[in-house]
Amino acid sequence: MKVKLMNSDGRLLQDFLPLVEGQVGMYCCGPTVYNYAHIGNMRAYTFEDILRRTLEYAGYKVNHVMNVTDVGHLTGDGDDGEDKMIKSAREQGMTVWDIAQHFTDAFFKDSERLNIKRPLQVCKATDHIQDMIDMIKTLEDKGFTYVADGNVYFNTANFPEYGRMANLENQDLQHGARVAVDENKKNYTDFVLWFTNSKFETQAMTWDSPWGKGYPGWHIECSAMSCKYLGPHFDIHCGGVDHIPIHHTNEIAQSEAANSCKWVNYWLHNEFILMKSGKMSKSKGGFITLQDLLHKGYDPLDYRYFLLGGHYRSQLVFSWESLDASRSARESLVRKIQVMKKDGAVPDLQALSEEAKRVLNDFQDHMAADLNTPRALADIWSLLKNRGLTASEKLTLILDMDRILGLKLNEVSDEVAGEEEMTGSLDEEINQLIQERQEARKNKDFSRSDEIRDQLLKQGIQIIDAPGGPKWKKN
Ligand code: AMP
Ligand code: ZN
């Protein structure tokens, strides 16, 4: 399987050739843990998961590294605004450290629910301050920095290739609307590497440094941590498209200036999830989280299925109607697998007919062509209708494909969970609670329905919202 990827650096579809045969170094910008991740953010991590799974399926060993930003990310990407963590801590009445822990835990819980594989290396910015200081010192020694009003800046004029990937013309650099005017900057695009003089309030998170007590800028953390875990030159770097003009542009400048070599071979960027009303934004509030979907009774994998229905480089508009459609499609797929299993189909990848091999090759070609997940889903539906395949072959193919798609189809059992117990007898009181919970869900009173679910759990009854109505199981 020869993987081709669209490289944002040069905007070309390229054959993927790793630096070391059979291995991939992949760095993904992780969450800023000042709030819950919204479902738009989770698109970025799901796309990265699909990329990793595709590369693993193709036989590569993927060293997947992701940072957790728990310091230094201001509400504006261009050194303007307030520190996101501090703002959140004040609003929630918690310490910044507790905020970071709480939202990091919530993030990994959401990732697990979406069946996103945990990166091999998860690195917290606050655990790597010395690595950042070391990199800033190297930049200083090489003449890429200056100090103004207590803060250390990167001098973009000394890095002639600045803005290469973003294709920023001189004009964009002059008038970049998102970069606030900072009179200490020598050039419009210069950015802070180390703050000792915070413009805002006293920072709770500060560290000693050669330039005084302070804290790092946001961009330096990704450069320092990726180089630490993947070396000065590695294969793939990912993130959302919003990071191209500032964050990733600055990461490239710092890393290539510090290491005097090319930094990343392939840059991949996912497009945004939009609401009908426009952009979904964590900092502006009014966004939807995975927890919101759970409260409304969706399975997190319904959302994963919804994401697979769009190519990662296309914008995708979220609506409840399209999520409903994804839920029906996923549930119907699950039911078809249940039936195949019930009828005794057994997966066997070794004994595939020529037709089955052709179908699998098509799927692999679609995924290898810059991760065409919508085509891959269509492949599944068309193979289900294919009269040239046996039920066992269909099951084998779908389970193999799901190693990339990650819909947990291998966990589908041959009977609907709880079906048998449903026919058994339950206490009248428990029956009533189940009915009351259904009523609450119908009325969208999700806090009451959650309350009842917890109450039932305490009594050893687990409720499963299966296709066709709730099922229950004794724990
Ligand atoms: P943040 O936690 O704000 O740093 O964002 C985490 C990741 O989510 C980054 O890669 C962003 O580019 C990406 N992202 C932010 N908003 C959206 C959105 N609405 N749709 C898809 N990706 C997004
Ligand atoms: Zn980053």
Describe this structure as you would to a colleague.
- It is a single chain.
- By secondary structure, the chain is of the alpha/beta class.
- It has three domains: 19-270, HUPs (Rossmann fold); 275-411, Isoleucyl-tRNA Synthetase, Domain 1, CATH 1.10.730.10; 424-474, no CATH class.
- 44% of the residues lie in helices and 16% in strands.
- The chain has a five-stranded parallel sheet, with helices on both faces.
- α7 (244-259) links the parallel β10 (234-240) and β11.
- α4 packs across α7.
- The longest helix has 23 residues, at 320-342.
- It starts with a strand and ends with a strand.
- The relative contact order is 0.12.
- Adenosine monophosphate binds next to α1 and β10.
- Zinc ion (ZN) is lined by residues 29, 222, 247, 251.
Short synopsis of the structure:
With about 475 residues, the chain is an alpha/beta fold.
Strand content: 15-25%
The CATH superfamily of the largest domain bears the name HUPs
The CATH architecture category of the largest domain equals 3-Layer(aba) Sandwich
The parts where pLDDT drops under 50 for at least 5 residues are 174-179, 417-423
Which sheet architecture does the biggest sheet show? 5 strands, parallel
State Rg.
25 Å
Overall shape:
globular
